[in-house]
Amino acid sequence: MPKDNNKKGIYIVVSVIAFATLYALDRLSKYMAVYKLKEGGPIEFLNDAFELFYLENKGAAWGILSGRIWLLVVFTAVVLCLLLFFYYRIPMDKHFLLLRIAMLLIISGALGNITDRVRFKYVIDFLYVKIIDFPVFNVADCYVTIGTFLLVIGLLFIYKDSELGFWFLDSKSEE
Question: Is 133 tagged catalytic?
Fold first, then answer.
């Protein structure tokens, strides 16, 4: 029993350190965007194909639900609670590492953007793929996108339905 508690303790510490690191990188990138781009204007890269461009997004992805900040905050808070619940239920087995990484990325990204919404009433975006005129996004958005991609890959191609019973509340699902 003590070995399981030790393993769980290490799992929690590593998770907290990974989350804090991802969250800090997002906050730092947004701070730098405000500091360097808000007044200084865009910075172009790759022969005008990519740009660091400061934008205050008052909506969700692609500006949808613009001006509905508290709806977005409440929705994100509910989703974050669900994600944390599901993350906590992932077994501490190497087999589920991809699942833990995917969830950690999604949680970190969601928390990074909800922090902006609560503090500023908008999300700081600054990454712009100019060559295809893709909407401006940020590091937290990258976390959510990559995490979602990894989650889908894992659920479709790696994990069997029978291995995912830990996510369900009833004991019959774990059989």
Answer: no
Which own/partner contact pairs does 139-142 have at CB distance under 8 Å and 24+ positions apart? Answer: 139/25, 139/26, 139/29, 139/30, 139/109, 139/112, 140/26, 140/108, 140/109, 140/110, 140/111, 140/112, 140/113, 141/61, 141/109, 141/113, 142/109
Q: How far is CA 171 from CA 95, 156, 162, in A?
A: 21, 23, 13
Candidate list 48, 93, 116, 125, residue with the active-site label? 125
Write out pLDDT tens, residues 43-84.
999 998 999 999 999 988 767 778 788 899 999 999 999 999
| Amino acid at residue number 89 | R
How far is C-alpha 2 from the chain's CA centre? 33
- Per-residue three-class SS string for 95-148: HHHHHHHHHHHHHHHHHHHHHHHHHHCCEEEEEECHHHCCCCECHHHHHHHHHH
141 catalytic per annotation: yes
Conformational region of residue 121, where left means phi above 0, alpha means psi within -120 to 50, and beta covers everything else: left
Site of tokens 């959510």: 144
